[in-house]
Each structure stands twice: as structure tokens, then as C-alpha cells.
Specification:
The protein is of the alpha/beta class and 517 residues long. Among the domains are: 31-190, Rossmann fold (3-Layer(aba) Sandwich); 424-514, GMP Synthetase, Chain A, domain 3 (2-Layer Sandwich), CATH 3.30.300. Helices cover 30% and strands 26% of the residues. It contains 16 helices and 26 strands. A hairpin with a 5-residue loop joins strand 8 (171-178) and strand 9. Helix 1 runs antiparallel to helix 2 and helix 1 packs parallel to helix 9. The longest helix is centred in the N-terminal third of the chain and has 17 residues, at 34-50. It is globular, with a radius of gyration of 23 Å.
Length: 517
């Protein structure tokens, strides 16, 4: 296990030293050993370091899951750089804005990601000195002075491990997420923060070198990054499939590649359960399922747990980008008795429930969930005001989630503070209504929001994706809700949709549903 002060890229070097000949990465018909992955990372690192990159300099990384991302991530770290993780689903102007905000000196990317947009991505960025890209397009009209290094130049660099003095207290990554204003904020993580969370997750999930982790979550997302780090740490194999738009193809890959573990957010499991044979197919190698990235409706938890009973264990987890990835877990053997809970703090993390005055809540009293541990971020990049809203002077993280703890310390979320709907004199949890709707047969996905209302202040509306061919009706949903919820919690309107807006990791975007058409 890596010491706390070791830089994060020691994980890759350890995998290459111990399991260099083992396959570490599978993508489509191609595979690479851990030794090959590290060699590619070393070549990129030596190119960057040889061109003057200094410890702490920011480097944008824009690539799909694959060898390019993994080697790019560790190569930037080996050169002493800080990875600025960019989401390929965003547009050129968003990439340019985040590169400007972070003060990136370089960008590592792929031609397939930027296509014709690289001139827009790199425009008006005087601090951006170079772009490393697999191939150069003659259609690009790039800013004067910007140096471009193609694949041949990377391959010509040394494959030796660079001797760059990087420590645990150096900046490793900036992951952009939305702050209280909805504007992207850069979550700053040190090498020791990410290394700590990797150890914490390994302590309860216990990944093994023989594991084959099926990856559909993007590595630029904190949950996806945790899969990359925990499995690199033990030299396990990462099986990548970026085709979740075709979920049956993912299940086929899972079977063909004999995946032992699978990870997803709630919408991932909802889609697999309703549109594929995931719950009934024989997947004899699959032994572990993990879920995070938002609360999963108890009805769906039960369905997945029951389908895989005796075959695979389901780990329900909770985390935030500001905590690297993970904060809590529910031991699978306690899933039934603690259904609906996000569990207890993972090893090395303390979770508290506090009142507004900072005092601890009593058992079953609702307050804000607060986290502390070595995995908590340093703050938001260049934004002390936003940082002060979420980090206490002691470095505790105010999660923005309302919850309660039971007598054993298990935490149950009520909702995000900003998702509480103020309907007249009542405060309604959108999550409570969503969980009730999810119990109705024929519901695949659901999202509940508050919308402006002249009389109530906010009115409750539900957006529902029905299982194809289910014949789901508004009448059936309302009939169930009348038996389940107080009348003031019933939606004023139910919208049936073919899909819900999501980000690249599969999280439902409530902000997009709140925007007027």
C-alpha cells in the first residue's frame, strides 16, 4: 500500500513493477500491459518535462476513456503537472474557458475529441504554450506561437521514468464541478488527497489483481477516476466500453471480457434493468456491483440486489467530487435492513450531521451532512469566497446534503438543500417524491423539480421516462402517490419523456429541466 506522502503516479509504477506483463487495459479489440501503459506515460512525461513544465503547472486533458487518457493522466503527473480534467461532452468555448481559468500551460488531447474545434479551444490563451495531440489536421489554423507535438514526437521521447521531484503535497488534479451559483468551480486535489481516497476505497471494496473492472463511467468524472486509481493500485484490468448509448453492447462486452466488477450511477442501472437482459443474463464472473453518483431509489436497489442474489454483492455508496470520490458505503450484508441509507463513513472518513449553528444533531434529527478526512479537497481554484461556503476553518466539508443518522450512525439523505421544494407553507423533498414514483411498475427513470408558481412560490412537477411498451399512465402514478404521500407532496404535473437530460457520467441535470422551453 502506498505511503501517504507518495505521489499518485507511484500507483502506475507499482503496477508496472509487480504486474508489468499483465494486461492492464482493454478497449475494443486492443489491449495493453501495465508495462506498455507506463512506457507511454513516461514518454509523454519526458516530452512535457523536457519542454519546461514545472511542478504544479496545469495541463488540460481532453480524451475519451482509453490508453490516451490513462497514459495522459499519469504522464502529466509524472512530469510534475496538475491534470485539468476536461469533459469531452462540452463545447469548445467551455474547454477554452476552463483552460483559461486554470491557467493551463499545455493541453493533451486527441484529434477525435477536438475535430475542427482546436482553434476555438486554444484561442486567446496567451498562457497556453503547447498542445500534444495524436495527429494534426491541416484544417487547423492555430494561434501563432502555439507549439504542436504529434504522436511521433511523443514516441521519440525517452521511455525512462522521469526524475521529477513530486511530493504528496503537490497539486495533482483540478476537477470542475458546479458551485452554489451553478458556475463551474475547480476542485483542487493534492496527490495525498487522491492517494488517501484510493486507500480508503480499497480498504472496503478490496479489489484484487485478478479483477476485471468494466468501465462505462468517464475517467474525467470523480467516480470514474476512482475506478482508474483503485484498480491501477492493485494492477487489475480495466475493461473500457464507451458505447453506453447502446447498453446491450455493454452487457455483451461484460460477458465476453469476463468482467468481475461493474460500476454505475442510478441511471446506468435503471437503463440496464429496463432495456437489456442485464438482470437475467448469466454473467458467471461478475461478483461485485458498485453504485454512487446520487441516491438510487430503494425499489431499484431491491430489484438489482434480488436479481444478483447469490451471484454478486451490491455496494451502495455516496461521495462528492470535493472528497476526491467516496465518503460512505453500506456493507452489502446490511443492505436490506438499511435500505435507503448511504451508510457510514468509509475507513478514514468521519461523517457528521450538524445543525445550522454547527452543533451535532440528535439521532434522527435532520441537518447538513458534514465530512472530514484526508481525502477532502483544498478548496476551489482561485475562489476563496466559494470555498468558504463549503469548507469550515477546520477543513471539514459541508456537503450541501440534508440527512439524518440512526442510532448506529447510518445516514439517510433527505435531499440536497437546494432541491428542497418550497410549496406554499410546506417544504417538500424532491427525493422523497422521486423514490415514491420509482416504486410504480413501468417507471424507468424519474426526476422531480420545483418550478415557479405565483400562488405557492414553487410547484412540484415530475418528469418520468416510462419503460418502453409498459403502458404507464399518469393516473397509475397519481393513484400510487395518493396512497403513499401527503396530498401536498403530489406533483402538479407529470411530464412523460423519452429520456432525461444527463451529463456525461449519467447524472440527471435538474438545471436543464428547470429552464423554460
Amino acid at each position: 500500500m502506498e505511503p501517504a506522502a507518495a505521489p499518485l503516479h507511484r500507483l502506475l509504477e507499482g503496477a508496472a513493477d509487480r504486474r508489468g506483463a499483465a494486461v492492464g487495459l482493454v478497449h475494443g479489440q486492443q489491449s495493453w500491459t501495465w508495462a506498455q501503459v507506463e512506457e507511454r506515460a513516461n514518454r509523454l512525461a519526458n516530452l512535457l518535462a523536457g519542454r519546461g513544465l514545472e511542478v504544479g503547472d496545469r495541463v488540460g486533458l481532453l480524451a475519451d476513456n482509453g490508453l490516451g487518457y490513462v497514459a495522459g493522466f499519469f504522464g502529466i503527473l509524472k512530469a510534475g503537472g496538475c491534470v485539468v480534467a476536461l469533459n469531452g461532452a462540452n463545447r469548445a468555448e467551455s474547454h477554452r474557458r476552463l483552460l483559461a481559468d486554470s491557467g493551463a500551460r499545455a493541453l493533451v488531447t486527441e484529434a477525435a475529441q477536438v475535430r475542427r474545434d482546436l482553434p476555438l479551444v486554444t484561442a486567446d490563451l496567451p498562457g497556453l504554450e503547447r498542445v500534444i495531440v495524436d495527429r494534426v489536421s491541416p484544417q487547423w489554423d492555430l494561434p501563432a506561437g502555439l507549439q504542436v507535438h504529434a504522436a511521433a514526437e511523443v514516441e521519440a521521447s525517452s521511455s525512462a521514468r522521469p526524475a521529477v521531484p513530486v511530493g504528496g503535497d503537490d497539486l495533482a488534479a483540478i476537477l470542475y464541478t458546479s458551485g452554489s451559483t451553478g458556475v463551474p468551480r475547480g476542485v483542487t486535489l493534492l496527490h495525498r488527497n487522491l492517494a488517501a481516497n484510493t486507500r480508503q476505497i480499497r480498504a472496503y471494496l478490496d479489489p484484487q489483481p485478478e479483477d476485471r473492472q468494466m468501465v462505462v463511467l468517464p475517467f474525467h468524472y470523480s467516480y470514474g477516476k476512482s475506478l482508474l486509481l483503485t484498480h491501477t493500485a492493485v494492477g487489475a484490468c480495466l475493461v473500457i466500453d464507451n458505447r453506453f448509448a447502446y447498453p446491450s453492447a455493454v452487457v455483451d462486452t461484460m460477458a465476453a471480457q469476463r468482467a468481475t466488477t461493474f460500476a454505475g450511477v442510478p441511471s446506468t442501472y435503471a437503463i440496464l434493468a429496463s432495456r437489456t437482459d442485464f438482470l437475467t443474463r448469466t454473467l458467471p464472473d461478475l461478483r461485485t456491483l458498485t453504485q454512487a453518483g446520487g441516491g438510487m431509489a430503494p425499489a431499484l436497489v431491491r430489484r438489482i440486489r434480488d436479481a444478483f442474489a447469490g451471484r454478486a454483492r451490491l455496494f451502495v455508496m455516496y461521495g462528492q467530487t470535493e472528497a476526491c470520490a467516496r465518503l460512505s458505503w453500506v456493507p452489502p450484508e446490511r443492505l436490506e435492513e438499511k435500505l435507503g441509507s448511504i451508510g457510514v463513513g468509509i475507513p478514514g472518513v468521519e461523517l457528521l450531521v450538524r445543525r445550522e449553528d454547527g452543533s451535532d444533531c440528535a439521532v434522527d434529527e435532520v441537518g447538513q451532512v458534514v465530512a472530514r478526512g484526508g481525502n477532502i479537497m483544498q478548496g476551489y481554484w482561485n475562489d476563496p469566497a466559494e470555498t468558504a461556503l463549503v469548507l469550515t476553518p477546520d477543513g471539514d466539508l459541508l456537503t450541501g446534503d440534508l440527512g439524518r443518522r440512526d442510532a448506529e450512525g447510518y445516514i439517510y439523505l433527505v435531499d440536497r438543500i437546494k432541491n428542497m421544494i418550497k410549496a406554499g407553507a410546506n417544504r417538500v423533498s424532491a427525493k422523497e417524491v422521486e423514490d415514491a414514483i420509482a416504486e410504480v411498475q413501468g417507471v424507468e427513470q424519474v426526476c422531480v423539480i420545483g418550478v415557479p408558481d405565483e400562488l405557492l412560490g414553487e410547484a412540484i412537477e415530475a418528469h418520468v421516462v416510462p419503460v418502453p411498451g409498459s403502458g404507464l399512465t399518469e393516473k397509475a402514478i397519481l393513484a400510487h402517490l395518493r396512497d403513499t404521500l401527503a396530498l401536498f407532496k403530489l406533483p402538479r404535473m407529470i411530464h412523460f419523456r423519452e429520456n432525461l437530460p444527463k451529463n456525461s457520467s449519467g447524472k440527471i441535470l435538474k438545471s436543464a429541466l428547470r429552464k423554460p422551453n
